[in-house]
Design goal:
heterodimer; A: 224 residues; mainly alpha; 9 helices; 0% strand; B: 247 residues; 8 helices; 75% helix; globular
Chain lengths: 224, 247
């Protein structure tokens, strides 16, 4: 019971803070849209080609946007001392870390999922592929927040932290990208997306179980 | 055996002199094995009937890619030991191994490209094993970049150790990727359970070369660890005495 209360309290706090700083959320969202719109400009307006690329492009853009939003996961709380107070509370770190990551996903992952269908339509994805895209993002973006949290915690307060976090986190994102884009691809080519989605779900469960511990260890290393 | 006090060598000062004595032997073994391996590879091994002479690059390519993955695992093991027992030397070994591992990953990618051009007709294909090797290279770079960005050595050690442990999840993916995404790259030619599908003389050459790279990696890591020890312990008394003895 205490666990759920802690997580809910943290969620309310994080969401309130995000509402007060709406600009941050919107910046990441527009970054997502802009990156996805750059691809047709780069490769040309060929409808057939764009339809083939669509799923992958949306996924790559989601990866970059998720990575960009990692900065505010711990950095603000670290700067004003909230993070130290959280570490000092008797609540096990894994619990409030899970809450913070969940909040981060709701603020940075969910908006991407809501906008993704529009981008998918721009790339000419079929209705079935659009559904799979949303579902794969639903399974995949929490993993991005979870894994990204490790990188964010390790680079806390370092010079050049933003670039460093991308170097650490992007290679670890690759399995999610492969299975996420693979699911959309499978739906487009008629091979079915179940296998990819199952693997994505498996990764989500594994990441959900393991990463909060890694993040807790990383925070302890960075704060002490 | 019981009389040896292994903990003695977890102290940087004793390890420093021990490593200094061991390095020439490992370099010597590496040079010797390399000569034997290259002789087998270039003069004894027969020409492959499909790939002609171009295949001979595997005597460099395969040992380098084996060791690039193996070193990452060893690095993660040192990192885990360091985090568990809080031994400084383990962290130093982990950071000493990283540049060698990254270099071997790069060699594996480069020689793979040289092999791919005559055999597949392309320098690079986005096949699972090539891609995972590339990811491994990124993981090494990330590890080194993180350690370089942190000024406090204690935090650098521990943060690097954690990212090495997180990244080691990738190494099994590299290995099993051959089965997961069955693509252009030929399946593994050497396996533990089946009889190898290549001439035994080729296998012998590859194994000898693998041992040569292994010995080289140990020697390089030890000498790098010695430099790290000197840098970290520069204010200690034994380093001062060592310098005096040199002068």
């Amino acid at each position: 019971m205490r666990t759920m209360q802690t997580i809910f309290a943290l969620l309310r706090r994080e969401l309130t803070l995000a509402m007060r700083r709406r600009g941050d959320v919107l910046t990441v969202l527009f970054f997502f849209v802009i990156v996805a719109s750059l691809f047709p400009l780069g490769v040309g307006p060929d409808t057939q080609l764009l339809r083939l690329m669509g799923g992958g492009v949306v996924w790559v853009s989601a990866l970059l946007a998720a990575m960009l939003s990692l900065g505010r996961l711990f950095a603000n709380d670290y700067a004003d001392g909230t993070l130290e107070q959280l570490v000092l509370t008797p609540t096990p770190p894994v619990i409030w870390i899970t809450g913070k990551i969940l909040a981060h996903w709701m603020v940075s992952g969910v908006p991407l999922i809501l906008v993704a269908p529009v981008l998918g339509i721009q790339f000419g994805l079929s209705n079935e592929a659009l559904g799979v895209l949303i579902f794969s993002l639903l399974l995949g973006t929490p993993v991005l927040s979870l894994i990204g949290a490790i990188g964010a915690a390790l680079t806390l307060g370092l010079r050049g932290g933003g670039v460093l976090v991308s170097l650490l986190v992007l290679p670890l994102y690759i399995p999610v990208l492969i299975f996420g884009a693979g699911a959309v691809d499978g739906a487009m080519s008629g091979m079915g997306a179940e296998a990819h989605l199952s693997l994505l779900g498996g990764i989500l469960i594994l990441a959900f179980m393991l990463t909060p511990w890694a993040v807790s260890a990383a925070l302890r290393i960075s704060i002490e | 055996m019981n009389s040896i006090n292994w903990y003695k060598y977890s102290s940087p000062a004793t390890f420093y002199s021990l490593a200094g004595k061991m390095i020439p032997w490992f370099y010597g073994a590496a040079a010797l094995l390399c000569l034997v391996g290259l002789y087998i590879g270039f003069f004894l091994a027969p020409t492959d009937f499909q790939q002609s002479e171009a295949y001979r690059i595997i005597f460099i390519h395969v040992p380098a890619s084996w060791m690039s993955m193996f070193i990452y695992v060893v690095m993660a093991v040192w990192a885990a030991i360091g985090l568990a027992f809080n031994t400084r030397l383990s962290f130093m070994m982990a950071s000493a191994l990283a540049p060698t591992g990254a270099m071997l990953t790069f060699v594996a990618l480069w020689t793979g490209a040289l092999w791919g051009k005559p055999t597949w007709g392309a320098w690079w294909v986005w096949d699972a094993r090539l891609t995972s090797e590339l990811i491994l290279f990124f993981l090494y770079i990330g590890f080194m970049a993180l350690q370089a960005a942190i000024d406090d050595p204690r935090r650098a050690d521990r943060a690097g150790a954690l990212i090495a442990l997180v990244g080691v999840v990738n190494v099994p993916i590299i290995y099993f990727s051959v089965r997961w995404w069955n693509t252009l790259h030929q399946g593994a030619s050497v396996s533990v359970t089946k009889a190898p599908s290549m001439a035994s003389i080729m296998l012998a050459g590859m194994l000898v070369m693998a041992f040569a790279v292994w010995m080289y990696a140990i020697a390089a890591a030890l000498s790098r660890a010695r430099s790290i020890i000197l840098e970290r312990e520069r204010n200690s008394q034994w380093v001062a005495q060592l310098l005096e003895a040199k002068v």
